[in-house]
């Protein structure tokens, strides 16, 4: 059980980093596809953050 909790925390951290980097890219080089992907990744990150582990 501890391995999977650590794995979920690592995935959350990696997803947060990906959202941050994509946000910086969308901030400096706006693109419609970047905005859509940023919205989807932000939604997934939000859903993962309100989950239990």
Task: Name a few traits of the molecule.
single chain; 53 residues; mainly alpha; 85% helix; 0% strand
Distance between the termini: 11 Å
Radius of gyration: 13 Å
Largest sheet: none
Order of helices and strands: HH
Q: Which regions contain 5 or more consecutive residues with pLDDT less than 50?
A: none
What is the approximate shape?
Answer: elongated
Range of strand content:
under 5%
Tally the helices.
2
- The percentage helix is over 70%
- SSE class: mainly alpha
Q: Determine the mean pLDDT.
A: 87
- Tell how many strands the DSSP assignment holds: 0
Characterise the protein shown here.
The chain is mainly α. The protein is 85% helix and 0% strand. Helix 1 packs antiparallel against helix 2 (32-49). 0% of the residues are buried. The model has no long low-confidence stretch (mean pLDDT 87).
């Amino acid at each position: 059980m501890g391995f999977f909790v650590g794995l979920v925390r690592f995935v959350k951290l990696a997803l947060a980093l990906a959202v941050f980097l994509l946000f910086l890219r969308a901030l400096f080089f706006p693109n419609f596809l970047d905005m859509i992907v940023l919205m989807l990744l932000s939604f997934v990150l939000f859903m993962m953050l309100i989950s239990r582990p």
